[in-house]
Amino acid sequence: MTLDEIRVLLRFKDAPHENCAQVNDLLDEHIDHVATRIKELKALERQLKTLRERCRESQQASQCGILTELSSASRHLHEPATRRGHVHGAHSLK
After folding, report:
1. How far is CA 84 from CA 44, 57, 72, 92, in A?
2. How far apart are CA 16 and CA 87, in angstroms?
3. What does each of the 94 residues of the chain score in pLDDT, given as a tens digit?
4. What is the C-alpha to C-alpha distance for residues 49 and 88, in angstroms, rounded to an integer?
5. Domain spanning 3-80: CATH 3.40.640.10
6. Is 76 exposed, middle or buried (0-12, 13-18, 19+ CB in 10 A)?
């Protein structure tokens, strides 16, 4: 939780007769954030495991499947958007 969120909680602790709806909202929002972050971390774990499968045994770095895959992904990121399948005009400019 952020310091501001903790301050909100402490403010309510100091005002025990106030309605705690804002506390509930704050926690619900934080729970959603944590759930989203867990999903992101699990996706990252899957990606890393897939990458790890590219090089099962020690060998020369020039033959390393992990390094080869990373190089390939890096080249893909630097291609022009049109080569990656970007649909021109799909985004409205408002």
Report:
1. 22, 32, 13, 20
2. 55
3. 889 989 989 998 899 899 989 999 999 999 999 999 999 999 999 999 999 988 888 888 888 888 888 888 887 777 765 554 544 444 444 4
4. 34
5. no
6. exposed
